[in-house]
């Protein structure tokens, strides 16, 4: 599964928003209308985003430190 079929939201779209906002995956997904109807996508979505966020952080672009601003 590569998207939430109920909401027609691709995991890539959720991943991008998680990267930008640094908010929890399920919170982001639900604000996009995903992962809250049949919930069949949740397991695959969490795995997909975890795998791709690890790739992202491994290239040294981790923005998990709190900002002073
Ligand atoms: S496939 Fe995502 S909520 Fe149904």
What does this structure look like?
The chain has helices spanning 11-21, 25-31, 42-58, and strands at residues 3-4, 9-10. It is mainly alpha-helical. The chain has a two-stranded antiparallel sheet. The termini are far apart. The relative contact order is 0.20. FE2/S2 (inorganic) cluster (FES) binds next to loops.
Return the domain count. 1
Biggest sheet, spatial arrangement of strands: 1-2
Summing up helix and strand content along with how strands pair, one would put the structural category as mainly alpha
Alpha-carbon Rg, integer: 12 Å
Proportion of beta-strand residues: 5-15%
In the predicted model, the low-confidence regions spanning at least 5 consecutive residues are none
- Main sheet: strands, sense, barrel: 2 strands, antiparallel
Shape: globular
* SS elements, strand count: 2
Whole-Å distance between the termini? Answer: 38 Å
Mean pLDDT: 87
Helices, by number, come to 3
Bound ligands:
FE2/S2 (inorganic) cluster
Question: What are the SSEs and their pairings?
Answer:
Elements: E1 3-4, E2 9-10, H1 11-21, H2 25-31, H3 42-58
Antiparallel strand pairs: 1-2
Helix pairs in contact: 1-3
Bound molecules: FE2/S2 (inorganic) cluster.
FE2/S2 (inorganic) cluster (FES) binds next to loops.
